Amino acid sequence: MSRTGSAVAGIGAAALGAAAGQLVAFGVNPAAAPIVAVGAAIVDRVPTPLKEWAVATLGTADKAVLIATVVVGVAVLSAVAGILAARRPAVGYGLLAVVGLIGVVAASTRPASGQLDWLPSIVGTAVAMAVLRLELRWLADRPGQGPDARAGIDRRVLITGAAGVVAAGAAAALSGGSAAPTASAPVTIPTAATPEPALPAGLEATVPDVSPLRTPIEDFYRIDTALVLPRVSTDTWTLQVDGMVASPFTLTWAELLAMPMIERDITLTCVSNPIGGPYISSTRFLGVRVADLLRRAQPNAEADQVLSSSVDGFTASTPLAVLLDGRDAMIAIAMDGQPLTQVHGFPARLVTPGLYGYVGATKWLSRLKVSTFAADEAYWTQRGWSENGPVKTATRIDTPVERIAPGKAVIAGVAWATHRGVGKVEVQVDNGPWTTTQLGPDVGLDYWRQWYLPWDATAGPHRLSARAYDASGLPQIADVQDVLPDGATGYHVVQVNVG
Ligand SMILES: Nc1nc2c(c(=O)[nH]1)N[C@H]1C(S)=C(S)[C@@H](COP(=O)(O)O)O[C@H]1N2
Ligand SMILES: [Mo]
What we know:
- The protein is α+β, with helices and mostly antiparallel strands.
- It has helices at 3-28, 34-45, 48-58, 62-87, 89-108, 119-141, 146-151, 155-177, 253-257, 290-297, 320-324, and strands spanning 238-243, 249-252, 262-269, 280-289, 305-310, 315-319, 330-335, 338-339, 349-351, 365-371, 394-399, 402-404, 407-416, 422-429, 434-436, 438-439, 449-457, 460-470, 492-498.
- It has three domains: 3-176, no CATH class; 203-383, Oxidoreductase, molybdopterin-binding domain (Sulfite Oxidase, Chain A, domain 2, Alpha-Beta Complex); 394-498, Immunoglobulin-like (Sandwich), CATH 2.60.40.650.
- The model has no long low-confidence stretch (mean pLDDT 93).
- Residues 220-226, 268, 270, 310, 312, 314, 344, 357-358, 361-364 line the site of the ligand Nc1nc2c(c(=O)[nH]1)N[C@H]1C(S)=C(S)[C@@H](COP(=O)(O)O)O[C@H]1N2.
């Protein structure tokens, strides 16, 4: 029996096992599929600096890279298990069982693990072990003749391996496709009690390449820990409002829709957004004021935070005072006139203007627990991020980037000082004077502001820097600081080659 043969046998067995686990997971919980569960457990456990590095270098591809890494890891371990099993069965099968056990532990220790989340990995492990046993028999049976035998790879083992890979791929594809939001009837969006005026025309009409005033939903940045998107039906969705309150209650979808709706133009950004980075977007949200819900529940005087939870176990801690200070934090059900998309938290999410997403924007929202910072730590606070996360004043140069022709050009971008409002944006070319830019339309304190500055670009390399001020005249922080623990600071600087 060749090593190659038994290695292929190990990989094929594991692939069929993973496929079987994935199929069982359809019935149990899509997030409990073995590979996904291991990936998710890694997301929960990797040290924050490593995660930061992954977000910075891989961006939104980090999820695909993580899953690919898990797949390669499982393939290598199961190949080794196949080789060992051919000689010392106890060790080989033992290793395969350990790989399966990792899936079991990963699936059952996630923050929102269900009662049966261990099942897919157990079934997958059993299938993998049975398949490996069969394959090793085939290999042992070979009398050692013919071209296959010389190569040491039994055709049945090769076919099993190929079938395993195809089955695992198909099961994974199915799980991706099955993740659409569900409801017995199409979700229709109510209108706001006092509709906002139409958004003014943005600078994008006249300044090419500046970020549009409103981000198209398909371009809206996405950040979350979910490897499998939570699938929530409005038929069964509820929002529990409880904790340190006089009158806890639970709302159904119909009850939420019956409440007065507000619409607000809000810029959402991530604490992990590096200076000049892409994790910021702006749109019009529609929903119910959190303050209305809190007033109904009547928080105790000692409470100082609201711990919001998602159906997948993510938590965020929002200062109670912020939710009650009149800034219109809301339980959003629509963005840009459409029901929330699944990636942005269908059917309902929290949005808190002025705070980074990790402290005020829980997606797939299921619970608001009135609590204290001392009693409950949120997901990212447990991982070294700041307890509170007000958005820092900052600006991004959208254009030009890298290379332009000499002559008349426009430097343009967006600035934000969420919930304080943008007062002014200045640009500096090389070591020249700081020049005040023209601001685009004002859409309120909680929304970003476009800006531009005409520039006569001369041939050669140039350094463009930009800095924003909030409406009270405070400039953004100049010192360069990375995103951990409470958001990056420093001016956005771009190098442009004119010529
Ligand atoms: N359930 C859940 N909600 C979440 C997160 C998450 O990981 N899980 N991430 C938060 C973070 S860090 C940010 S920046 C925003 C991003 O929202 P978006 O993906 O709609 O842009 O969602 C927040 N809400
Ligand atoms: Mo974030």
